[in-house]
Write a structure and sequence with these properties.
Blueprint (H helix, E strand, L loop, with lengths): L10 E4 L7 E2 L5 E6 L3 E8 L4 E7 L3 E5 L5 E5 L5 E3 L3 E5 L2 E7 L3 E8 L3 H5 L20 E2 L5 E4 L13 E3 L4 E4 L3 E2 L17 E7 L1 E7 L13 E5 L3 E5 L4 E7 L3 E8 L4 H5 L10 E2 L3
InterPro entries: RmlC-like_jellyroll, RmlC_Cupin_sf
Protein name: Mannose-6-phosphate isomerase, cupin superfamily
Organism: Streptomyces melanosporofaciens
């Protein structure tokens, strides 16, 4: 199910319901949805195909969700490979992703990556003015490819998910959830001045979305209770009350995307690779 892209409203994009935004020469198919500050691309990557992004101004994140061997080359250096679920931070510049076997990968780019933003299905809708614009980065994480394997990250009581950052992006990759979420323990909340993208990779989910009332009755909206399969992308605007629950049996995998990195998560010490970022000397 896809809800029409209108600035200030939620957009739910279940990729099986529409044609891809990009098909590579090797047959890989990519679907993209953007917010004001980021764009998420889900690619059904064909074995042996190569996804090359040229002259990117910022780091991006590559999410590998299974045991297919995925390799990343960057600016002519030796490639780095991973064969298990992992989050890979790829530096700015030119890079190529390829896989030995067909797999599905997700990538997260900043809004400064113009070509990647233009690919998004909702790019023409424009930016939501309630979302604060992406500031110039004040920290740097180095110039090498960094691989964060999920098996190396034990569960920790009190920590929310598994949160990673770049200089301008943040991703929370939740642990696999078995079966449906307890409907008596949901977490409806909203964000005043930033968007959230919720990406489902495995399992069925329900997104519950409520637009707050304003003095203008013409702006009121009915609550949305949208069921999606995987993969899917849901863009949640500022001020929209939202909560998401896994539905049905089996494993469920959910990822939340933000930009810029959330200061509240950093302050709580939840960001797993925070120590890898240092202030930029001006």
């Amino acid at each position: 199910m896809t809800i029409a892209a209108i600035v200030g409203t939620s957009l739910v994009d279940e990729i099986s319901e529409r044609d891809p935004d990009l098909i590579s020469a090797g047959g890989s198919r990519t679907w993209s949805v953007c917010g004001r500050n980021f764009v998420v691309a889900i690619t059904e990557l064909e074995a042996g195909d190569r996804l090359t992004e040229h002259h990117l101004p910022d780091e991006y994140m590559l999410l590998v969700q299974d045991d297919a061997v995925v390799s990343v080359e960057h600016d002519g250096r030796a490639s780095a490979s991973v064969s298990e679920p992992a989050l890979v931070v790829v530096p700015a510049g030119t890079s190529t992703v390829h896989a030995a076997a067909s797999t599905t990968v997700a990538r997260v780019f900043t809004a400064r990556c113009d070509e990647q933003m233009r690919r998004a299905v909702n790019h023409a809708a424009g930016a939501d003015p309630r979302a604060a614009p992406l500031p110039e980065p004040t920290e740097t994480g180095g110039d090498g490819i960094r691989i964060h394997r999920l098996r190396d990250i034990p569960d920790e009581e009190g920590r929310l998910g598994r949160i990673f950052r770049t200089a301008s992006l943040m991703v929370n990759w939740f642990p696999v959830h078995e079966g449906p979420r307890d409907t008596e323990r949901l977490s409806p909340h909203s964000h005043e001045d930033f968007e959230q993208m919720s990406v489902t990779l495995v399992g069925d989910y329900a997104h519950h979305l409520r637009v707050p009332w304003t003095p203008r009755m013409s702006e009121w909206r009915d609550d949305e209770h949208v069921q999606v399969g995987s993969p899917s992308m849901t863009l949640i605007p500022p001020t929209v009350v939202h909560t998401t629950r896994a539905v049905g049996a089996g494993p469920h995998t959910l990822i939340d995307v933000f930009a810029p990195p959330r200061e509240d998560f950093l302050a709580r010490g939840w960001v797993l690779n925070a120590a890898g970022y240092q202030g930029i000397r001006r």
